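Preliminary data (for renewal application), adenosine-5'-triphosphate complex.
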Amino acid sequence: MDIQKITILGGTARDGSREPLASFELRMGDVASIVGPTGSGKTALINDIGMFANANTPTLRRVLINDEVPPASFREDPASNPIALITQHTSFLSDLPVQRFLGLHAKIRRSERPETIVEETLQFANQLTGEPIDVDSAMTELSGGQSRALLIADAVVIGNSPIILLDEIENAGIDRSRALALLGNYQKIFLFVTHDLHIALHSTYRLVMRGGAMQDLIVTAETESRMATRLDHLEKTMIHFRDRVRAGLPLSEDDLNTRLAQMPGVQP
Ligand SMILES: Nc1ncnc2c1ncn2[C@@H]1O[C@H](COP(=O)(O)OP(=O)(O)OP(=O)(O)O)[C@@H](O)[C@H]1O
Ligand SMILES: [Mg+2]
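Predicted structure:
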């Protein structure tokens, strides 16, 4: 099926009242974020989407694909499911070596280029992690960040899923800027649950959650996109100094002044 859009029809908040936002739509190519405090229902929302909720979850939400109730095959046959959900807590049931796991997945997906696609997946994953993944190690031996990087790469490259839902990738030590840049090369619907300013402001829009309910959909304003560049600069500055403190090095005020003067959009 050629996926053009996915629609989420609102249900009820945690207290049983109707959700303020009655519905929202994601179109092919959209990058969106879900924001909101801890416990506000972000994970519940992407789980609803991931299981094609049809008023059969506690939220009573419904999900439509191309304006229609999705076929049962999406849920029953993993190979025809267009949604990949990268969860907040990853654990593998398989202790196969990485290379073999990816090879098997490529085969199940009937990839026409099983060797190169595994290589491409590993390269993708390694760009997101600090330490490269050892292809001979068992899936269960990967670090949290490596596991998530591999799952993202697997969903994007081998799974070729048109809709990718990611729950708080920033907490797994994944390089967010790289992830956003890499994912930007693929024409898909990406939905990030995030507490991260960078990811939220680099999204086309952000869905605001509170009390288990969808409250509002905020389109990223042009001014916000401009601010994002400057806020990124501030964050890099913070990280630079944090890394120096971690490395046991002294900090210099001149260094801070120079970095602040280099802030994009600021006249010297
Ligand atoms: N609309 C709703 N109706 C009933 N229960 C809900 C609803 N939304 C969320 N919940 C429940 O509230 C709890 C907290 O929600 P959830 O885990 O989705 O929060 P979260 O925003 O992902 O939090 P965190 O930032 O800590 O990951 C869960 O048990 C979830 O099932
Ligand atoms: Mg959550």
